[in-house]
Structures are given as structure tokens and as C-alpha cells.
């Protein structure tokens, strides 16, 4: 069922005339309760005043898709919807705003005011959103008009973040419990977002876990835990994002949150450095495979980010004590000062800085894919060349 909504959303998007951002995005609403389906299947469905869905200022007749076979191939389904859409446009000289899906429900364009924001009506999924960097990225995207699905493992941290972000943008943020190491959980998470807003345009692959251990003391089981999250989780995120963005057919953006450790690994940080390097390479490969579909894949490589407001970094909660001990530091604030002092600009790296790098890519300031922005204040050893 959920593969139909992105198809419709993509076909309803209007060309923008902008070579970098080629389409004006829309938000779709989907209704499928019993009353709606009974109406769509009834002889009364031409009487839009009886429609149980609160459609606003309906002046264009609905597109009626009565013979979609959900068991058919994706290619055939898309061809059929596209043909029905073309026929509708030829008859009415305009794209539909409402779609009746027999036995399924009603899809309609949510008529929203123009905000003038660069990411208006774009839908983003952020993995690992409950951490410091993830929450900062969510805030940055919301400020630019995006609709956000903040995803993480279900629990208090995710719930708290969503409550906080709803104060900024009540109707443009949802929380989705999702395990990036589970194929089913990833598919269900994407489906929940698609059911809510009709599709996905931006995917931020941010989730990851650390491990402190030297190579000679590291257990294989511990290393495999990082492999599962940092590598397999990134692979599943890229795979699910690719399928859904290609299905929609209007391009998209994926950003992999990498790390300075890909380019300048740290002692006793081998498992993290190696698995994040693999995730980074998967992002580069995705940029090669998806460019023909106008899906851009880029990386952002930050150094230490300790918090985003009241949201503490889960990574630094785990590795901070070891890093302090390793450097002879007894005060957590001094540890942050150490990381600030080691970069050329003597800059404190924040979640906002990481969000700004993400925004550079997803607002398409330049025609760029397969690239990395370091967000580290200037670390010569970690700068991609």
C-alpha cells in the first residue's frame, strides 16, 4: 500500500524551474478508515460535499484509481498511475488535488500557505535523532521549513526530544521508534512517515555507537556490535532511502554523518574509526549509484560535539571518562576545552555547526554529491584531500 503514496506525491509535484531543486514539494494526507473506504467505494462519491475527509475549497474533481493491483510489480503500478494522471490532466488541464483509491482510501494535497522557506514541504528522516548531533540537525531542518521524522530507539530520550521540538513546530515533527539494524523496523519506520506526509525527500544517516578499547583487548563480539549498528545500520538506511526516493521519482538528498576519525583515527578508538570509515565509504558508493536519479549523497565529518542545549551526547557519555583518564583530565569541562584548543580555529564545535553543514547540502547550494564537509575547526590530519 505505502509504495503508492510516494508515486502519487512524485507525480503531483510541479516543476520549479530551478535546475538544482527541480520540483515544488507537496504534503499529502492519507485517510483510510472504514467510513472513508465506504464512501470511495460508493455511488455517492461524486458528491464531494458528502466526503468524510475535510477537503478544503474543492474545485477540481478527484482522480479515481479504481483498478490498482497492489500485487503487481512496482513498475506496472507506477505506469498505470502515471497513465491515469496524464489522462486526467488532458481532460481537466490541471493536476488533481484529490485521489480516490478504491478499497484503500483517499489521498489529498494539504493546501498550506507559502512560507518562503527553502525546505518548505520537504520531508526528512533523521536517524539517531535523540542524541546531541541528531537533535541539532532536527532543529536546523525545522527552521528551514522541513517536516521531520525524528527516529531513534523507542524510549524516554526520543519522547523528550519530540515534546521539546513540538514547541518549535507542532505539526511538522513526529517521533518514530526505529532500530536501524532491523530490516523490518526500517521499512515500518519509513512507511509510518509516508503514511503521515506522503513521502520522503531527505534522509540523514546519523545513528551510531562508540567503543573504547585497544586492538589487543577488544573482543570480537564488541566489535561486531559496532559493525551491526555503524555499518549494517548505515547500509539499511541507505538501502531504504534509495528505494523510497527512487519510487517517488523527484530526486532527494541523503547525508551520512561521518566523523573526523575516518581521516584521523584515534588510539583505543579503532572499532569506531574502522566501522565509521566503512559507513563513509558506503555513502560514497551510494553517490555513484544514485546520481542518475538526482539523488545526492554527501557526508559531514564533525569532531567532538558534547551536547545540543540540554541534550547530552550519548557517545561522549560512554567515551568521555576514558578520554579524560587518557589525557590526565579530571573535569569534564576541561575535556571540552582540550578538544577546542587542538583545532586551528580554537573553535567549540556544536550541533548547530553540524546542522549548518547538513543544510548546505540539502538546500543544494552547489551541484555537489559524494563530497565531505569537515566540521572540526581545522584539523590538518583529518581534512579530506
Please outline what is shown here.
By secondary structure, this protein is α/β, with parallel strands linked by helices. The protein is 41% helix and 16% strand. The strands form four sheets. A seven-stranded parallel β-sheet has the order 9-8-7-10-11-12-15, sandwiched between helices.
What would your notes on this structure say?
- The longest helix has 29 residues, at 220-248.
- This protein starts with a helix and ends in a 10-residue tail after the last strand.
- It folds into two domains: 4-109, no CATH class; 123-377, 3-Layer(aba) Sandwich (Rossmann fold).
- The mean pLDDT is 94.
- The protein is α/β, with parallel strands linked by helices and 385 residues long.
- Helices cover 41% and strands 16% of the residues.
- It is built from eleven helices and 15 strands.
- The strands form four sheets. Strands 9-8-7-10-11-12-15 form a seven-stranded parallel beta sheet, with helices on both faces. Strands 3-6-5-4 form a four-stranded mixed beta sheet.
What number of structural domains do the residues give?
2
CATH architecture grouping of the largest domain: 3-Layer(aba) Sandwich
Content of β-strand: 15-25%
Mean pLDDT: 94
Q: Total strand count, please?
A: 15
Largest pleated sheet: 7 strands, parallel
CATH topology of the largest domain: Rossmann fold
Helix/sheet category: alpha/beta
What level of helicity do the residues show? 40-55%
Q: What is the rounded Rg?
A: 23 Å
| Largest beta sheet: strand ordering | 9-8-7-10-11-12-15
Distance between the termini: 45 Å
Low-confidence region ranges: none
Name the CATH class of the largest domain: Alpha Beta
Number of helices: 11
Shape: elongated
* Element-by-element helix/strand order: HEEEHEHEEEHEHEHEHEHEEEHHHE
**CATH homologous superfamily title of the largest domain:** NAD(P)-binding Rossmann-like Domain
Amino acid at each position: 500500500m505505502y509504495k503508492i503514496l510516494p508515486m502519487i506525491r512524485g507525480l503531483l509535484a510541479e516543476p520549479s524551474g530551478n535546475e538544482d531543486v527541480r520540483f515544488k514539494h507537496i504534503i499529502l494526507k492519507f485517510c483510510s478508515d472504514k467510513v472513508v473506504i465506504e464512501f470511495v467505494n460508493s455511488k455517492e462519491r461524486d458528491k464531494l460535499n458528502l466526503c468524510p475527509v475535510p477537503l478544503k475549497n474543492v474545485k477540481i474533481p478527484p482522480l479515481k484509481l479504481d483498478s490498482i493491483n497492489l500485487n503487481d510489480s512496482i513498475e506496472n503500478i507506477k505506469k498505470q498511475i502515471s497513465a491515469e494522471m496524464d489522462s486526467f490532466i488532458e481532460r481537466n488541464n490541471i493536476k488533481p488535488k484529490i485521489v480516490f483509491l478504491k478499497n484503500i482510501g483517499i489521498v489529498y494535497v494539504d493546501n498550506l500557505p507559502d512560507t518562503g522557506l527553502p525546505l518548505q514541504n520537504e520531508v526528512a528522516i533523521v536517524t539517531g535523532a535523540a542524541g546531541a548531533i541528531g537533535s541539532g540537525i532536527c532543529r536546523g531542518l525545522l527552521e528551514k521549513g522541513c517536516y521531520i521524522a525524528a527516529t531513534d530507539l523507542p524510549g524516554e530520550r526520543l519522547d523528550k526530544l519530540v515534546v521539546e521540538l513540538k514547541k518549535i513546530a507542532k505539526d511538522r515533527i513526529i517521533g518514530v521508534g526505529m532500530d536501524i539494524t532491523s530490516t523490518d523496523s526500517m521499512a515500518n519506520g519509513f512507511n509510518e512517515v509516508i503514511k503521515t506526509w506522503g513521502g520522503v525527500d531527505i534522509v540523514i544517516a546519523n545513528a551510531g555507537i562508540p567503543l573504547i578499547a585497544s586492538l589487543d583487548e577488544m573482543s570480537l563480539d564488541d566489535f561486531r556490535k559496532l559493525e551491526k549498528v555503524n555499518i549494517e545500520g548505515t547500509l539499511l538506511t541507505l538501502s531504504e532511502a534509495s528505494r523510497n526516493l527512487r519510487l517517488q521519482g523527484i530526486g532527494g538528498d541523503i547525508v551520512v554523518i561521518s566523523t573526523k576519525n575516518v581521516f584521523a583515527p584515534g588510539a583505543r578508538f579503532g572499532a569506531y574509526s574502522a566501522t565509521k570509515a566503512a559507513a563513509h565509504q558506503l555513502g560514497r558508493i551510494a553517490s555513484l549509484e544514485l546520481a542518475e536519479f538526482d539523488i545526492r549523497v554527501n557526508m559531514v565529518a564533525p569532531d567532538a560535539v558534547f551536547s545540543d542545549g540540554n541534550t547530552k551526547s550519548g557517545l561522549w557519555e560512554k567515551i568521555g571518562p576514558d578520554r579524560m583518564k587518557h589525557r590526565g583530565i579530571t573535569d569534564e569541562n576541561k575535556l571540552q576545552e582540550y578538544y577546542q584548543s587542538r583545532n586551528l580555529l580554537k573553535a567549540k564545535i556544536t550541533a548547530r555547526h553540524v546542522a549548518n553543514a547538513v543544510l548546505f547540502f540539502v538546500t543544494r547550494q552547489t551541484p555537489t554529491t559524494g563530497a565531505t564537509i569537515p566540521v572540526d575547526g581545522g584539523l590538518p590530519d583529518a581534512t579530506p584531500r
